[in-house]
Amino acid sequence: MKRIAILGSTGSIGTQALEVIQAHPEKFEIDLLTAHNNADLLISQAIAFNPNTVVISNEDHYVRVKDALAHLPIKVFAGADAIVQCVCSDEIDIVLTAQVGFSGLRPTIAAIQAGKTIALANKETLVVAGDYISSLCVKHNVKIIPVDSEHSAIYQCLVGEYSNPVEKIYLTASGGPFRGRTRSELESVTKAQALKHPNWTMGAKITIDSASLMNKALEIIEAKWLFGLDATQIDVIVHPQSIIHSIAQFGDGSMKAQMGLPDMKLPIHYAFTYPERVVTDFPRFNFLNYPQLSFEAPDRATFKGLDFAYYCLQEGGNMACIMNAANEVANAAFLRDEIKFLQIYDIVEGTMERASFLAKPNISNYYESDQESREIAHELIKKRQE
Ligand code: NDP
Ligand code: MG
Questions:
Q1: Would you say 54 and 75 are in contact if contact means Cβ atoms under 8 Å apart?
Q2: Closest Cα to atom 4 of ligand 1
Q3: Which domains does the chain have, with CATH numbers?
Q4: Does residue 57 line the site of ligand 1, with CB under 6 A?
Q5: Ligand nearest 16 Cα, by number?
Q6: Ligand 1 in contact with 271 (CB < 6 A)?
């Protein structure tokens, strides 16, 4: 029995993880569920899965959750600090980090320090502080198993290749809803259009990141830290059908690709069951439904996020932390209709130019840099509105 904590159980990844767990009650037990605002869903999840503990990070909802679960032997806490404390419980084996954005950093650090295996969905953690997180994992002998579909694919390709170095990886990208659009066509795209992803149903933040390809930018940096690669070893190829989830190429020129239907339950299930392959009833791939798998180069001049990521890899230090913070602010502003789609890039670029660069940041520097970058990004948005 593996005992699992889900940070962000009310989100897209969190709810799919619960479906995976529900299908295998003989293998998994839920110890901890956390949510931010969605108290109703957290309450019904707690009633259905009977965890030891639930945490609602927005303290305004504490009394509601506490009262609703008063008749059950479930501990209820509130606040971000409570997540950090509860994730360290001795009862937990695996922590699925499915909170969105920078908020995932602190609980992930705590979970690593407590020696938990990390099933990592929250890619922002590695983008912000990849060097710190990597050395922390070495120190505490902790394994990070990626949940992000591309990184799960590479991870699966590397099984059994321990002494064979990767020459290069290709992260596949669907291209999102705006694939093939020119810059001028993107001037006036709306939030509703950006939220319509062709292949995946995901939370709002990552769906906008997929439309802007900032998601792929984050994934380039995530891949660097997960697999110890440098920039020249990470490439992106647009593959609109999202069937090949990514590809590893080895020194003999051979390539291994992992493929399957686009369903996040598969990488979540893999992360929970690794190194086993446990039988599922997920729908199987039918070649005849996909007579053609196609590939094309990303349009890096229009979708500028990819170049930002390579710039971050070149500069190192806290540059990716700056990029991430600016992107979170710009993404949220676009979702509030405060900026236009292409201005996301202007805000990110402007913040990367202005925020204080540190070549060798420590962990406190990352929190400070995140804060400073958010302030700069908000300033830039305000100026654009004047
Ligand atoms: P969602 O927006 O659907 O869910 C986010 C979850 O985090 C919710 O449970 C939410 O709680 C919680 N949350 C939001 N803000 C905070 C906060 N400040 N503190 C604590 N908890 C918070 O996101 P996704 O599930 O789409 O994504 C989660 C992570 O997984 C992201 O890092 C994303 O990049 C990554 N990922 C997602 C994929 C997907 O298919 N969705 C694919 C690959 C990676 P509440 O709803 O209660 O407010
Ligand atoms: Mg992905």
A1: yes
A2: 11
A3: 2-146 (3.40.50.720), 316-386 (1.10.1740.10)
A4: yes
A5: 1
A6: no
What is the spatial order of strands in the sheet that 94-97 belongs to?
Answer: 75-78, 53-56, 28-35, 2-7, 94-97, 117-120, 144-146
In angstroms, the CA 314 to CA 311 distance is 5
Q: Which residues pair with 166 in a beta bridge?
A: 250
Confirm or reject: Cβ of 103 under 6 Å from ligand 1: yes
Q: How far is the CA of 16 from the centre of ligand 1 (A)?
A: 12
Q: Tens digit of pLDDT per residue, the chain (386 long)?
A: 999 999 999 999 999 999 999 999 999 999 999 999 999 999 999 999 999 999 999 999 999 999 999 999 999 999 999 999 999 999 999 999 999 999 999 999 999 999 999 999 999 999 999 999 999 999 999 999 999 999 999 999 999 998 999 999 999 999 999 999 999 999 999 999 999 988 888 999 999 999 999 999 999 999 999 999 999 999 999 999 999 999 999 999 999 999 999 999 999 999 999 999 999 999 999 999 999 999 999 999 999 999 999 999 999 999 999 999 999 999 999 999 999 999 999 999 999 999 999 999 999 999 999 999 999 999 999 998 87
Name the token pair of 186.
């993107």
Give 98 Cα–ligand 1 centroid separation in angstroms.
Answer: 5
Ligand 1 pocket member 122 (CB < 6 A):
yes
Å from CA of 8 to ligand 1 middle: 6
Q: What 3-state DSSP class applies to 60?
A: helix
The residues, any chain, with a CB within 8 Å of residue 247's CB and separated by 6 or more, are 153, 157, 169, 170, 172, 237, 255, 256, 257
